[in-house]
Amino acid sequence: MDWHLLGLSFVTVFLSELGDKSQLAAIALSGRCQSPRAVFFGTAGALLLTSLLGALAGGAVAEFLPTRILKAIAAVGFAILAARLLLFNNDASPDSEETP
């Protein structure tokens, strides 16, 4: 096992998930229920399952597409997201409240 890759993956996911909505939901659920341990195991299980499915899907896609194409698809996807955020984020969303 590549321990460096394991540690890097753990730190990256840990830091990116610190302010995640699922963590806030787990905090809210554990504060209201009688069994915070059940909330912990439920949320941990859900995170493990989604991570497993993501790793399996990523491995399957990597079997069919070369790394260069995957990187190009990711770069184009991030560029589209960045352009949408920079150029079209000023429009009023239908969920926002408008003041007269």
Automatic annotation (TrEMBL):
InterPro entries linked to this entry: GDT1-like (IPR001727)
KW Acetylation (keyword) present: no
Pfam families: GDT1 (PF01169)
Compartments reported by the entry: Membrane
Coiled-coil portions: none
CC per GO annotation: membrane
GO terms for MF: metal ion transmembrane transporter activity
Family to which the UniProt record says this protein belongs: Belongs to the GDT1 family.
Name of the protein described by the UniProt record: GDT1 family protein
Species of the source: Nostoc minutum NIES-26
